[in-house]
Amino acid sequence: MVNETLAAHAVILAGGRGTRFWPRSRTRTPKQLLNIVGEETMLEQTVARLLPLLPANRIWTVTNAVQAAAVRKQMPAGSRKRVLTEPVGRNTAAAIAFAALHIRHAAGGDALMAVLPADHYIAEAEKYRKIVSAALAVAREPGRMVVLGIPPTRPDTGFGYVERMGEALGAVSFPVFAVKRFTEKPALELAKEYIASGRYHWNAGMFFWRVSTFLDNLKSFLPKTHDALERLADSIGTRSYERNLRRIYPELENISVDYALLEPATKQSGKPRVFVIPAEVGWSDIGSWGAVYDLLLESGAADSSGNIFVSPGYGLDGYGNLISVSGKFTAIVGVRDLVIVETPDALLVVPRERAQDVAKIVKWLEEQRREDLL
Questions:
Q1: pLDDT tens readout for residues 100-139
Q2: Does 331 score more than 70 pLDDT?
Q3: I want to staple 325 with a disulfide (CB 3.0 to 4.6 A). Which of 40, 214, 262, 330 is the partner?
Q4: Looking at residue 101, what DSSP letter applies?
Q5: Does residue 246 share a domain with residue 104?
């Protein structure tokens, strides 16, 4: 293991829209900026988990122009100048590369990077921090890329899967495995086989590497994006930076970091380059209102009939409902397994099992050009 001293930085990806959380989640106030579970917003919870490990001035956030002001308000003072604004969305490979260049500039050279989503829930924060520290230790070795793998609890077809191989490696306090391959959203029968094998983990989108390792891989697998961003890097801190950013960023390829770098890196011959650390930390991506119900149910928030009233209300012969209606008392009678969410301008009623389809409502609103509801 390399003993070179490198400062660690975190990059929080916070540009998503959270369309499955309509009507609360809107373009300017998406899921990560809302208190979906708990008093703090998802972004605030993400930052709070990191602050015992990193100073605020080493916590970076990548977002878009519409959300940037709201993001800055939720960040600690030392992180507000570390909010990077993409002029257009170009997926995670570009967003991470954008942050990598700024970290390299701020550090005056190489550094370690932890790349984390802004809108995930983690119950065991202390254990999570220990695993993050272990992942950074593994990533200190030049050329290594590390992903946290969530032990799957069901054959879910909505997640990407990471297949590990061989025996666990040594050198850190948690098991570390070489990655054999990544698989995106398998069919149900295949997902069942993955679970039964015991070799697969959910890909939670949490990555660790050196800045130099990431940029070297970007140059190998996505040279057009690498070269464009290096042109931008030359102007960081100058008066021409904003103009160059608006000109160069639209040229970048629109592709996820998984497809662009991690998958091809696992296929290269020679010693392993991508590693996974299993992370059983009470994780949830809280991907829909149905997932919110499941999480609150586990926390003991339901009444004796399985109803969860986020706002005042009462259920008569109702079972398994999630109710979030601001400003009024809600009574339900004889209904089962519904999600009911109201905001001042919209009301959502959907069976819990179809909560994923809320995103289709947002798509329809876009087609109808209902900007007042987006």
A1: 999 999 999 999 999 999 999 999 999 999 999 999 999 9
A2: yes
A3: 330
A4: H
A5: yes
**Domain match, 188 and 241 both:** yes
Contacts of 248 (CB under 8 A, 6+ apart): 228, 229, 231, 232
Cα–Cα dist 359/225, whole Å: 30
Query: Given the DSSP bridges, would you call strands 121-122 and 145-150 parallel, antiparallel or unpaired?
Result: unpaired
Nearest to 61 by CA among 13, 114, 8, 119: 13
Q: Where are the alpha helices (DSSP H) in the chain?
A: 42-50, 68-74, 91-107, 125-139, 188-197, 211-221, 223-233, 241-248, 257, 263-266, 289-298, 358-367
CA–CA gap between residue 285 and residue 294 (Å, rounded)? 12
Pairwise CA distance, residues 96 & 255, whole Å? 11
Roughly what angle, to the nearest 10 degrees, separates helices 42-50 and 125-139? 60
CATH number for the domain spanning 126: value is 3.90.550.10
CA dist 220 → 15, 213, 234, 261 (Å):
26, 11, 20, 9
Residue with tokens 């030392």: 78
Cis before residue 351, ω within 30 degrees of 0? no
Coil, helix or strand at residue 134: helix
Range of the domain at 156: 8-284
CB 94 within 8 A of CB 249: yes
- ∠ CA 10-18-262 to the nearest 5 degrees? 45
Same domain, 279 and 349: no
pLDDT at 269 over 60: yes
- Picking from 4-8, 19-23, 252-256, which range would have the lowest pLDDT averaged per residue? 4-8
The model's confidence at residue 4, banded by pLDDT at 50, 70 and 90, is: low
What is the maximal distance between C-alpha atoms in the chain? 65
Q: Are residues 64 and 96 in the same domain?
A: yes
Distance of alpha carbon 188 from alpha carbon 115, whole angstroms: 29
Residue 354 and residue 307 in one domain: yes
Residues facing 107 on adjacent strands: none
